[in-house]
């Protein structure tokens, strides 16, 4: 974590944050969830296939990774965004932290952005694709706009 990373929306808006999870670049439809809990269920829910999940609740990861709470055996989302990630979970059932979980599953993530502002943009402008990248200056906006999940 802590390497500068960016979310570039198809309309040109750029959010600056920090990397978490697997190193890499990922494009997907940005979707948000407003739940205060349930991040493990959300991450392992097959209905998020090919999407970048963003949590509106400001702190995610505080109870760690608990395999018994998974909806499925895999993460179907292609990316993950939170405002703040907890790196020292405090639950007796925890089997690890969220950052390590994402790395092990090759899921690229971003933390440290204003998730409330991103939520407002998505509510005002509708569904939008985005790119998580470390190099926002090399973005091909046509590829972001044309991105579609392939099942």
Largest sheet: 7 strands, mixed, barrel
What percentage of residues falls in helices of 4 or more residues? 10-25%
Radius of gyration: 14 Å
The number of helical segments is: 4
The side-by-side strand order for the widest beta sheet comes to: 1-2-8-6-4-3-9
Beta strand count: 9
User: Which shape, going by the Cα principal axes?
Assistant: globular
Mean pLDDT: 93
Low-confidence stretches: none
What gap, in angstroms, lies between the N and C termini? 30 Å
Query: Strand portion, in percent?
Result: 25-35%
Which series of helices and strands comes N to C?
EEEHEEEEHEHEH
- The SS-based structural class is alpha/beta
Main features:
two-stranded parallel ribbon; globular; 4 helices; 151 residues; alpha/beta
Description:
The protein starts with a strand and ends in a 5-residue tail after the last helix. 19% of the residues lie in helices and 30% in strands. The mean pLDDT is 93. The chain has a seven-stranded mixed β-barrel with strand order 1-2-8-6-4-3-9. It has four helices and nine strands; from the N terminus they run E-E-E-H-E-E-E-E-H-E-H-E-H.
Give a nutshell description of this structure:
This protein is of the alpha/beta class and 151 residues long.
